[in-house]
Amino acid sequence: MRRPVITARAAATFEPVGRSVATARAFVRDTLQGWGCADIVDDAVVLTSELVTNAVVHAGTAADVLCLRNDDGVRISVADRYPEREIPLQNAGQVVVHPDREGGRGLLLCGALATRWGVEYTAAQKHVWFQLDLPERPAGTRSAGPALPVAALPVAETRVRVAVIQIDRGGCISFWNEDAQDLFAYDPEQVIGKPLTDFAAWPHTPGTGTGIVEALQLSRWEGSYGIRGSDGRVVPVYASHLRVRDADGEASTVCLLVRDHERAILQSPQRTPAPDAASQAGPSEGRLADPFEVFIGSPAPDDLDGLLQRTVERARDMLDGDAAYLLLATDDETELEVRASTGLPSARQRFARVPVEAGSGRYGSARMPAVHEDLTAVPGAVPLLSGTGMRSVVTVPLKVEGRLTGSLGVAAEGAGRYTNEEALRLQFAADRIALAVERARLTELEKLRRGSLSFLVEASDLLAGTLDRDQTLALMAQMTVPTLATWCAVYTVADQTSEPELSYVLHEDEDRIDGLKTLLMKVDPPEPVPTPGARVWTAPGDAAHDAALRTSMRSLGLGNAARPSTGPGATLATASAVGGETVVLPLVARNRVIGMLTLGKPTEEHFRQEILELAEDLSRRAALALDNARLYSERTAISQSLQRSLLPPEQPAIPGVEVEVIYRAAGEGNEVGGDFYDIFPIRDGAYGFAIGDVCGTGPEAAAVTGLARHALRLLAREGFGGPAVLERLNAAILDEGARSRFLTLLYGELWPQADGSAVLKVVCAGHPLPLRLRQDGTVEPAAEPQPLLGVMDDLELYEQTVSLDPGDVLLCVTDGVTERREGTRMLGDDGLTDLLTTCTGLTAGAVAARVLRAVERFAAEPASDDMAILAMRIPEAPAD
User: Mean pLDDT: which of 56-70, 381-395, 844-858 is highest?
Assistant: First the structure.
């Protein structure tokens, strides 16, 4: 005889107490359901109940339950610790015991229900086992529902379309059938090879929920989400995912999708609740099964969204309704937020909020059970159902310790469907699930808060890392899209008298940005109100709706204007992108509104309260960062303007002399430092030039630079010679007192001559000596060193006369050139002299460029000192 092959095993031990019977029944039921053996679950549960009752109640010992799945069916063994107890047997020599006798009934049931059964003894245990074979089932009869009248069947389109999409192990689409093309208006070549996440509108909240990437990795998954069509609209779908592998072991996921209102086509039949526990319990067990488990099913979903969705589906089925919804209260219990629905346009209603207090247009059935027999007689009694076609509704509150935590409602399309009896039934179920819902809500809230804290910490780090205004605006938008919103616009306000200006626009779909920006430019900006919190802004949605309507009419030839060149698609897509809820948050910094952060959702979507609170926290941080960037930009502009004023104006053209200047200020953002230069006309035929170095760098040194440059020009044009000019400048520096700094300066006056040469008179006050390069390549100092300025009161300076012949070069530099270092090496005066000997025949510009290149290449690190290079060359006369 063929020995059955064991393919699965499950075991558990139950204590000798009455409640163990119900626990053992649940264990067997869940095990067999998990193995897909639903056809024999009822018989297995009945037999297990009787055998465990015999063990834990009558024998008074613990019961060991072992479930084995084989290729024929399931074998279940129940063992107790009382092997001496007599076992009633049926044979010719004994009287058959009565079926109602207290003991021994389990074995009679085994004989009646099991395919095979038996009893085995060991030294310490007695095993009673039974085998239930799975019935032979031809293809197509795995499960079936009851026969229903045509009017009760779910509604579907005339031509039902089931989109088949296959996703490879990298999350990209590898197959796209014709029904998918019809449903979402994408050709296969538009989507194949692209990630499914580019098209899926997955409900996502930071810190909570399962994402689409995780769902695609599960062996099997069912649920609702959305697919963005080619027109930008989200098509709500119900999906069934199955993960498979091919013959080579390559894994992929097959996704079947239908429209959400046709979910009955794909949705797995809900498992029917277990029979009443009282009918299965032994005489000594009077406890009923857990009402929560009976209503929700086992196992209960771990996540809040799954629990709420199963709750509304079970509530709808329990009262035979057409729709059901569940709302959760906000922290202050003043509003209710839609969190789950079935039979309603969930994409439009999800996270919508309604007030709790009774009154016109308010949700008046929150705190007490209520039945509305005909909503057409009381319009607005349940705003959530307006325009849905529902006429009768029963609503009950969810309360925990007397505190309102939510509301559960079931609605029907017919009038007069519900009475107080249905309200009591629904309230009984709501009382059983309220605590579980509140516990799951608090768990989700804690996850959300942890995720929000992490999000805000990262946002703060990013915002603090830049002082550039444009980069701050971009960061603000990129942090909100798509984490908090589908699109974002940032308005800035220059001052209290200025109108808000649209500064940045971002959409999660880059193709929508231009259309969105064009739309917002045509809409009056929101008012810069400093009131904290988010406020709804309807202008973009209204403008988008009007634009889409006009475009549609023109495309149909109903308008007077010509059809737009872009066609209707762009406008309709833009309208869909901004057609949902739009909110505005003020950007307030230092008690002034400096802008507005605008967040938007696509058509018929709403923000949840937690997201708005997170956005408000982000807006406060972003406002301060934006204002800091503004202040930094303003002060930088002022600093650069002042620094540019210290630089000499455009240098004059000196007849017969080539002049080249290269200037580098040390420090980021500095245009002027402690080094300076100047070239200026003194009078007809005479020109002054100077190159100097103030002690130190930065703004303090730049202040002395400005004093020196302006004093030189003024004194030289008053007719003072070189020594007199520097002596008076020395006195002016000393007059600065504690702010004074010593200064090295090379000052000279230049007279171009008619024969092509030039005469120079120079004074070198503590500055690196100017170098003269002759045509034959020799280099020599062109002046002698004298005392620097800003140290002694009485200076006796003298000037020296230098003549430059055609082809000669005069090179003047600051110590930022000669003191260029790398480790212990320094360029020095000798190094500069050697470099200048290689510059014979070069123009003044080429000489200055070669010196700069040599300084930069001398060390790997950038220069840390200011640097100025002034080269003057007398060009050679052209050959005859």
Answer: 844-858
Backbone angles phi and psi of 280, in degrees to 5: -105, -15
Are 868 and 675 in contact, with CB atoms under 8 Å apart? yes
Higher pLDDT, 546 or 412: 412
Tokens for 335?
Answer: 């509003």
Highest mean pLDDT among 181-190, 221-230, 538-547, 643-652: 181-190
Per-residue pLDDT averaged across 692-699, rounded? 75
Question: Counting every residue, how long is the chain?
Answer: 880
* CA 550 from centre of chain: 35
Residue 363 has a pLDDT of: 46
Pick the closest to residue 196 from 182, 220, 219, 217 (CA basis): 217
3-state DSSP assignment of residue 314: helix
User: Environment class of residue 18 by beta-carbon count within 10 Å: exposed (0-12), middle (13-18) or buried (19+)?
Assistant: middle
- Measured at the CA of 285, the angle between CA 280 and CA 288, to 5 degrees, comes to 65
pLDDT at 96: 42
Q: Which of 35-44, 152-161, 556-565, 849-858 has the lowest mean pLDDT?
A: 556-565
- CA-CA distance, 593 to 588, in Å (whole number)? 4
CA distances from 363 to 154, 323, 395, 535 (A): 29, 17, 11, 21
Q: What residue type is assigned to position 621 of the chain?
A: R
Q: CA neighbours within 13 Å on the CB side: how many for 310?
A: 23
Of 513-527, 664-678, 687-701, 762-776, which has the strongest mean pLDDT? 762-776
What is the pLDDT of the chain when averaged over all its residues?
80
- Region 516-531: what's the mean pLDDT? 85
Nearest 5°: the CA angle 592, 595, 600 is: 140
Assess whether the previous peptide bond of 299 is cis (omega < 30° from 0): yes
Which residues neighbour 383 within 8 Å (Cβ) at sequence distance 6 or greater?
Answer: 354, 361, 362, 363
- Burial per residue of 430-448, b for 16 or more beta-carbon CB atoms within 10 angstroms, e otherwise: bbbbbebbbebbeebbebb
Under 8 Å CB-to-CB from 342, ≥6 apart: which residues?
309, 312, 313, 316, 323, 324, 325
Of the candidate ranges 150-154, 475-479, 720-724, the one whose mean pLDDT is the lowest? 150-154
Q: Is the pLDDT of residue 288 over 70?
A: no
Question: Residue 790: which region, alpha, beta or left (left: phi > 0; alpha: psi -120 to 50)?
Answer: left
3-state helix, strand, coil in the chain (%, to 5): 35, 25, 40
Name the pairing type of β-strands 116-121 and 126-133.
antiparallel
More confident residue, 628 or 650: 628
Query: What is the DSSP track for 455-518?
Result: HHHHHHHHHHT---HHHHHHHHHHHHTTTT-SEEEEEE-SSTTSPPEEEEEEESSGGGHHHHHH
Alpha helices of 139-297 — where are they, by DSSP H?
Answer: 178-184, 188-191, 212-217, 277-280, 291-296
Q: How far is CA 148 from CA 144, 264, 508, 758, in A?
A: 12, 14, 45, 114
DSSP state of 96: P
Query: How far is the first Cα of the chain from the last one, in angstroms, to the nearest whole number?
Result: 124
Q: Rounded CA gap, 312 and 707, in Å?
A: 82
Nearest to 384 by CA among 420, 356, 403, 423: 356
3 state DSSP class of 502: strand
Which letter does DSSP use for residue 529 in this model?
-
Output the pTM of the full model. 0.49
What pLDDT does residue 553 have?
A: 66
Yes or no: say if 363 and 356 are a contact pair by the CB < 8 Å rule: yes
Q: Cβ distance 486 to 601 under 8 Å?
A: yes
State which amino acid sits at residue 579: G
Is-contact 757 805, C-beta < 8 A? yes
- d(CA 612, CA 605) in angstroms, rounded, equals 14
668 — pLDDT class (breaks 50, 70, 90) = low
Beta bridge partners of 687: 681, 750
As a whole number of angstroms, the distance between CA 327 and CA 319 comes to 18
